[in-house]
Design goal:
Blueprint lengths: L8 H19 L5 H22 L5 H21 L6 H17 L16 H25 L5 H21 L17
Helix pairs in contact: 1-2, 1-6, 2-3, 3-4, 5-6
């Protein structure tokens, strides 16, 4: 299974990018933002369930990732629908994220040999992603505190993260090697 790719990788990334765009639209009070967010969460959930079902060998980390996606998307969908009791889903998301991060979180940046497997360009893009996430967090905190310029900072962070995701969708990979999970591409 050396030459394989993850199933539904690009459609899931496109749904995540659409979700982020919908969140920017909601912050800016644009129409149809809630519909875009709802459809994005539903698409992520459906695509990941199909991806999980097609996977032949399911390890414990795969079950944790499926639970993480289930809790996260369910929380997002129920929040959009103004369901008031989403605390269970938020706690489930937090615990499954911590479990996933403890089991596999940092291994995406390290090859199977234990060497760092990134080129200079990938390192720069990963740095840009970190800056985008930090900007996103700062913008969110500024917005909660009703500080000036919170919306531009939040929008900048979401734009950076969305562009990072879109870059991964539209650029061709250098090799066809799969990462740690050896998930296959299903047509």
């Amino acid at each position: 299974m050396e030459n394989s790719k993850k199933a539904f990788r690009n459609p899931i990334r496109a749904a995540i990018a659409t979700l982020l765009i919908g969140m920017v639209m909601r912050i800016l009070h644009y129409p149809f933002s809630e519909g875009i967010i709802f459809v994005s969460f539903a698409a992520i959930l459906i695509l990941y369930i199909v991806r999980f079902a097609k996977k032949e060998e399911k390890k414990s980390v795969d079950l944790i990732k499926m639970a993480l996606v289930l809790f996260w998307t369910s929380n997002g969908i129920l929040t959009i629908l103004d369901f008031t009791h989403t605390l269970f889903f938020q706690i489930g998301t937090a615990f499954t994220f911590i479990a996933w991060f403890a089991m596999e979180g940092t291994s995406y940046f390290i090859s199977k040999d234990g060497n760092v497997n990134n080129s200079i360009t990938e390192i720069i893009w990963n740095f840009v992603m970190v800056i985008g996430v930090i900007t996103l967090i700062c913008g969110g905190i500024m917005h909660l505190l009703t500080w000036d310029y919170s919306i531009p900072v939040l929008t900048l962070g979401l734009t950076i993260v969305t562009s990072y995701i879109l870059k991964d969708i539209f650029t061709a990979p250098k090799n066809n090697e799969d990462d740690i999970n050896n998930e296959e591409l299903y047509s």
